[in-house]
Amino acid sequence: MNLPNSLTLARIFLIPLLVVVLLTKFEGAVIFGIGKELVGAAIFAVAALTDWLDGYLARRRQQVTTFGQLMDPLADKLLIMAALLSLVQMELAPAWMVAIILGRELGVTVLRSVAFSRGVTISASPLGKIKMMSQVIAILLLILGREYLQQFFILGQIALWVVVVTALVSAADYYRRFLQVGSHPQVTDFESARRRTTEKKPPGVEPAADDQRRKVASQM
After folding, report:
1. Which burial class, exposed, middle or buried, applies to 22 when counting CB atoms under 10 A from its CB (0-12, 13-18, 19+)?
2. Is 134 exposed, middle or buried (0-12, 13-18, 19+ CB in 10 A)?
3. Average pLDDT, integer, range 3-7
4. Residue 190 near residue 210, CB atoms below 8 Å
């Protein structure tokens, strides 16, 4: 288990702690003399920091693994989902806005999974990165704005609107690129090659589908 993967797992373990801190009614709303909103914001900030740090270390140390590629986006989605649902329970975020954001996450995940099953990877869009950054800022401001500066809450609401808009626009962009992938003639060739390889593969012959998949992915 390398350091980037350990940070990813640490982010997952911080998620239930974040939910407990935000939703549990502590006496006086303080934890060890510190307001629970401040503690919750600190936990979320540390978890969000590990999202950037694990990717940076994996690339710098050349420790990119299949485990990290699968678990890192899953950890991100679980963290954001837990934080947003907690904000709804705390009446700090409208449920319909959170439903749109989470629905977008589910839809994009399905599209990317279907495309991957066809041998093509749909890369993350710049809008998706803007959305992620807006989500982190919005969540932090909304948590802190409950008991501290009212301006934080107002800025958090504005950031949440930015998240909703970028979520819808980026979802449309993913769908457009998914349609391009589906209509690409070599994707059909890949499906045919994979079926032929699955049905019968001569001994000692490498699957042609793998070469075809790499060829399609490099041209998208």
Report:
1. buried
2. buried
3. 84
4. no
- CA dist 151 and 219 (Å) reads 47
Strand partners, 34: 31
Question: Can you tell me the mean pLDDT for 55-76?
Answer: 79
- As given in the structure block, the two tokens for residue 186 are 């070599």
- Summarize pLDDT for 199-208 with one digit per residue, the tens: 544 545 444 4
**Cα–Cα distance for residue pair 98/85, rounded to 1 Å:** 7
Q: What is the mean pLDDT of residues 149-154?
A: 80
Distance (Å, rounded) from C-alpha 173 to C-alpha 131? 13
Sign of CA dihedral 42, 43, 46, 51: negative
Task: HSE, CB side, 13 Å, CA atoms: give it for residue 113.
Answer: 9
What is the Cα–Cα distance from 206 to 220, expressed in whole angstroms? 23
φ, ψ dihedrals at 64, nearest 5°: -70, 120
Radius of gyration for the chain, computed over Cα atoms and rounded to the nearest angstrom = 21
Query: Do 76 and 54 contact (CB within 8 A), yes or no?
Result: no
Q: Is the dihedral of CA 136, 139, 141, 143 positive or negative?
A: negative
CA distances from 83 to 69, 76, 168 (A): 22, 11, 20
What is residue 35's three-state secondary structure? strand
112 versus 15: the higher-pLDDT residue is 15
How many residues in the chain? Answer: 220
